[in-house]
Amino acid sequence: MVSPACIAQTGDSLFLYRRGSIYSLMIGHRSLQFEQEIEKAFDEMPVPDKYNDHGLGKKVFYTTEEKLKQKGIDDHKGFVVNGSSKREDMNDFDFFLQRQHIASRLVAKWFQRKKGDGICNMELVQERGYNNASEVDKRLAALSVRKDALLMDAGEELIGSTFVLINDIRYIDKSRGSSVIGGAISAVSKGAALLQGNTNALEEKDLGDLIASYKGFNVKIKTYLYQLVWDEEISSFWYNNVYTESKDESKKEAFENNRGKFSLVYLGMQESSGKDISFAGVNESKPQIMVRKACQRAFDENVANLQKNFEPFKVKAPLLSTDPITCEIGKKEGITEDSRYEVLETVEDEKGHVEYKRVGVIKPQKDMIWDNRYMAKEENAKGADLGFTTFVKVRGGDFYPGMLIREMK
Questions:
Q1: Nearest to 343, CA basis, from 371, 363, 367, 368
Q2: How far is C-alpha 341 from the chain's CA centre?
Q3: Residue of 2, 106, 120, 263 with fewest CB within 10 Å of its CB?
Q4: CA 107 to chain centre
């Protein structure tokens, strides 16, 4: 086994940092209050910055309350969405994912497959592999018998870390007494005027009521996590029957006729707490920012909890420095004073596969946790200006910059 420790001592070198990829969707409810504002906010929300954006274009799909209640969406038991699934085991989300061929489209995007002629390439796979590798990685690859194949394989291993997030976002009516929160339909057009910046059309009382409504704006989000299945069988089928870099009608048809071979497995669901959000520092004349902040905070809360609860979805982040020990993660990733992280050294086995070996444990230093949540600086939140979280060693030997850390249960 080849260890990189001897060649990774420089402070500006970040070792192998492989990101997962996400396609994030939202369920649309045309009949629910503030639906337009919520959809606009979701459209502006980026994929979490510790992941690659693997979106397929469509971000919102619509369903009805009746369909959602029919099959008990929260009662998944490791359901796999593919062509051979039994209809009685499926809910509306699963039908949507299957009807839209989401799994096969995610794979096709990895290989930049052209729908017209079926021609593929390895550019994205290799690009993400190289983009996630530092000069240290390339030096390690030079020591490997397989040389650059190591880095290319690193990109391909990312395919199995492709996830779909389906978000059910609902406004919480806390009945604070304003015309909008009280549910008065007559206020909708006035709210639209405010969102468009047309305050001249509003009376002073209406404007005050509407601003008070948005100040009390809150949402709850249920986020459902699926993972793309990319195993030896699927990989073999893809390369032997579908992948081609020149026109091949039989391989083009093989993909279209076998979309059901590609699948997503359901991992679990997380619901945000729906707790009050501070709108300190938000311009009251721009209520859409309040909607965005409420949605973003609830979504980030769910992603952080899904990372804690589901091993395949956990992120790894590199240490920036070791004296002090710092890393660019914070409250957005769910860090608290009770959090514990394992420090991992990246090693290569005899076959050239990368493994992670625990070499120590660290915990956040009190009062040194970075608040990197959306708009934390605008509300003057404690720790918002830190830029990273500082840790202290619980146990372990010597660490060096670029070692990865991963949260422990």
A1: 363
A2: 20
A3: 2
A4: 17
